[in-house]
Design goal:
The chain is α+β, with helices and mostly antiparallel strands. The protein has four helices and ten strands, in the order H-E-H-E-E-H-E-E-E-E-E-H-E-E. It has helices at 5-34, 47-50, 62-69, 130-133; strands spanning 36-41, 51-52, 55-57, 75-83, 89-94, 104-112, 115-117, 122-124, 138-143, 149-155. The strands form three sheets. Strands 5-4-6-7 form a four-stranded antiparallel beta sheet, covered by helices on one side. A three-stranded antiparallel beta sheet has the order 1-9-10. The protein has a three-stranded antiparallel beta sheet with strand order 2-3-8.
Length: 162
Amino acid sequence: MTFSKSAIGVTLSALAILALVNLRIYQQEQQLANGDIVVFELAPVDPRSLMQGDYMALNYQISSNISQATDQENDDGLFVVTLAQHQLAQFDALYQGQALLPNQQLIQYRVRSGRVKLASNAFFFEEGRAEEFAKAKYGEFRVNPAGKLLLSNMLDKDFKRI
């Protein structure tokens, strides 16, 4: 059996893509397992888009602090939060190379067309659980050393996982 060069090329390309996808999955699993916990208070969203099918739209209170701190329409950077009780993040400042205290954490942000983006703007859940997740007041994230967030859980007003 002989293989053409194009068939070998396609096969190698497919294997490379699979390897990259699996590497990304592994990295995210490691972040969920080992990342530092940071909790953000949720902000109100348009009630019409709060629950759509099996997901809820998300917005974060801390986004308004970032909007006030940067005057850029489009921006990428890091900001500093102080972790209070329950690992609740409180905005300190945009990061400009300052030393961090032990209870502070760097978090990545993006501003696109004037809107702050931290992580996921939606949380997907199992069908039939909308009423439970409507009680969410906080989002629990795992953050990696580069400040990238990964949403892990939704929390109620008492910081209990839903």
